[in-house]
Write a structure and sequence with these properties.
Layout (H helix, E strand, L loop, with lengths): L1 H16 L39 E3 L3 H9 L48 E4 L9 E7 L4 E6 L5 E4 L7 E8 L4 E10 L4 E4 L3 E6 L9 E3 L4 E4 L9 H10 L1 E6 L16 E3 L8 H4 L4 H19 L3 E5 L5 H14 L3 H9 L17 E4 L4 E4 L8 H12 L5 H11 L5 H11 E3 L5
Parallel strand pairs: 1-7, 11-14, 12-13, 12-14
Antiparallel strand pairs: 2-5, 3-4, 3-6, 6-7, 8-9, 9-11, 10-17, 15-16
Helix pairs in contact: 5-10, 6-7, 6-9, 8-9
Length: 432
């Protein structure tokens, strides 16, 4: 009897001391990383972007742009056809939303968002006693940002994510409570950016692979639509500073060029170009060529400092596109890929898109909207791509032609060209 009583007393202790062998939901999850169990049907998340959880791998690039960049391959020196019209872009935004169909209310969006990167929300359980919250976000390149979240809010939307990167995040309340913590990975072809309230057609030139197998460095060269005060809110300016910009290069002409930077603290350059293409390159005008040299050297100076430079005209298309072709061409990106990068402006809304300024158009009775005809022989690309190939000669590369232009027409010293390449090219990540 005494032995039975002893066993009854010891048994609870044995049970209590047993290790917890319950398998984790994610066997690879670091126990130090936590994701609160939130109720996705809670009205507090009604306006939030899709939820991002610890351990997720998410697309950084807009899904429509990613589809185009993944599926389409062009060839060098052939600009007679385009496949861009197979994808949703700015030309048909008057009638069709991102999926080509009306929304649940039978309405169509009038402003496409394919030039915006994907957005996600980091969520936590609502806590009225937590106070204001700070979301710390960092990636494996050394970049980080602290985002102030209003007290009582239970999520924070994040966007402008770098493709093929590893991120960590932690949301900490004013009272010291850790609201959410975790890690996630991204994938995609293009680092797109959107700055509130309405900076459009903005993307990083980083991530493109060169003929030699190197990769163009991220967060240094950014092409974008206009950065006027009316296009930037306080939050947008804060995001620009957080992104790591050091300079703003306004390529517009005398009628609309800025007199100074839109964001305090950035260096500013405004050479003033009235049009893009060969005119901007100064092929027959030494004055324009000298201004183009100034653009190159201003950008190089920001890169030297480890900062990003945003270069823009009004739409971020032709004058901006001319400089982008020179940058990518000099770095050795294949010309057929540079033409794809140029076409990405098509995904911006009317007023920015490469499709919006053509005089040749047709009315589509099935879609009930105007279709602006587009092929890759239009706009400044059809001027400058053949020009650089001609400079390269029969056995030269596109990069040879761009370098010859910079040396002989723009008068950029060889040492600066070499330095630019050294600073802007990094080892490409291993293929998954």
């Amino acid at each position: 009897m005494k032995r039975i009583l002893s066993l009854l007393l010891i048994l609870p202790l044995l049970v209590y001391c047993q290790p917890n062998n319950k398998p984790a939901d994610n066997p690879n999850e670091d126990p130090g990383q936590t994701q609160p169990q939130t109720d996705p049907t809670d009205p507090v998340y009604a306006k939030a972007a899709p939820e991002l959880k610890n351990g997720d791998k998410v697309l950084a690039t807009n899904r429509n742009v990613e589809k185009f960049l993944t599926e389409v391959t062009y060839t060098d020196k052939d600009w007679s056809t385009t496949k861009i019209y197979d994808y949703y872009g700015g030309f048909n935004g008057v009638k069709y939303n991102e999926n080509g169909e009306p929304d649940e209310n039978g309405k169509y969006t009038s402003k496409p968002v394919s030039d915006k990167p994907e957005s996600y929300s980091i969520r936590w359980v609502p806590d009225t006693d937590a106070g204001a919250i700070t979301l710390h976000l960092e990636d494996n390149t050394g970049w980080s940002q602290d985002i102030a979240v209003t007290a009582g809010k239970a999520y924070q939307d994040i966007t402008n994510l770098l493709p093929n990167a590893h991120y960590k995040y932690v949301a900490t309340a004013e009272n010291g409570k850790e609201m959410a913590k975790g890690e996630f990975d991204t994938y995609g072809h293009l680092h797109q950016l959107y700055f509130k309230s309405d900076v459009r057609n903005c993307r990083d030139l980083g991530g493109w692979i060169t003929e030699s197998g190197k990769m163009v460095r991220y967060r240094r060269l950014y092409r974008t639509g206009r950065w006027d005060a009316a296009n930037l809110s306080k939050a947008g300016r804060a995001d620009i500073i957080a992104e790591g910009f050091g300079g703003q290069l306004d390529l517009r002409g005398t009628s609309d060029v800025l007199s100074g930077t839109t964001v305090n603290g950035l260096e500013f350059c405004a050479p003033s170009f009235e049009q893009g293409g060969k005119a901007m390159l100064g092929v027959t005008n030494p004055t324009e060529a000298a201004k183009f040299k100034r653009c190159f050297e201003f950008s190089l100076e920001q890169v030297r400092k480890g900062k990003g430079v945003a270069f823009h005209c009004s739409l971020g298309r032709d004058r901006t596109g001319t400089l982008a072709v020179v940058f990518l061409g000099l770095l050795g990106v294949p010309e057929h890929d540079i033409s794809k990068e140029y076409e990405c402006s098509y995904f911006a809304p009317l007023g920015y898109s490469v499709s919006s300024s053509e005089t040749a158009s047709a009315y589509d009775n099935d879609k009930q909207c105007w279709i602006f005809q587009n092929n890759r022989t239009k706009w400044v690309y059809s001027e400058i791509a053949p020009y650089f190939w001609d400079l390269a000669g029969a056995n030269g590369t596109f990069a040879d032609g761009v370098e010859k232009y910079l040396l002989t027409v723009a008068q950029v010293p060889q040492a600066e060209i070499d330095e630019f390449r050294e600073l802007m090219l990094v080892d490409a990540p291993a293929a998954n």
